[in-house]
Amino acid sequence: MKIMICNETDSDIQAIIENAKAAFENHPYSAGTEQFIAGTLRVANVLTISLVAEVEGKALGHAPVSPVIMSDGRPEWYGLGPISVLPGFQKRELGETLMDEGLSLLKNRGARGCALVGDPGYYKRFGFRNDPELGCEGGPPENVHFLPFGKNGVRSRVSFHPGFFVKG
User: What is the pTM of this model?
Assistant: First the structure.
């Protein structure tokens, strides 16, 4: 299976919504609103990066990236997610490829780090770490993860764009 990672286009938007809805249906870490987050971020014009994983020309996965605010004032931090992959294509490297490409693009643009909310077991393999004393508004602290790109660790809370907390 040949995976192509591309920037999102207008023709991908419906697939992004449908894939996210299917990917997070019955997911233990789901808020049930993941299919709306990228659209809300898109309308707010805060998508810094929006990658699509294509196989044979079909958009099967998505990884949006948007700026976040760190409580200690550090600039150039970004939030990744929600990463979604159509269920029939999960565990086939689409999510990992999207993650790797998104993190690479962030590093290349001089980002200082990345934060996300999700499954601790999954994101540890990419170097993300959790600190129960940190976290974010609206997300369980045990599911908030940080990946600093420099030598300095993380000692602040993160605030994601309000689009992450859309109700539908």
Answer: 0.91
Nearest to 24 by CA among 84, 109, 110: 84
Rounded Cα gap, residues 75 and 9, in angstroms: 28
Tracing tokens 């079909």 back to the chain, one arrives at 58
| pLDDT 10s digits, 60-113 | 999 999 999 999 888 899 999 899 999 988 888 899 999 999 999 999 999 999
C-beta atoms surrounding 41 within 10 Å: 24
Q: What are the DSSP calls for 33-97, one per residue?
A: -HHHHHHHHHHTT--SEEEEEEETTEEEEEEEEEE-EETT---SEEEE---EE-GGGTTTTHHHH
Q: CA-to-CA distance for 46 and 26, rounded, in angstroms?
A: 28
Distance of CA 20 to the CA centre of its chain: 12
- From the number of C-beta atoms within 10 Å of its C-beta (0-12, 13-18, 19+), residue 75 rates as exposed
CA 49 to chain centre: 10
Q: Is 141 exposed, middle or buried (0-12, 13-18, 19+ CB in 10 A)?
A: middle
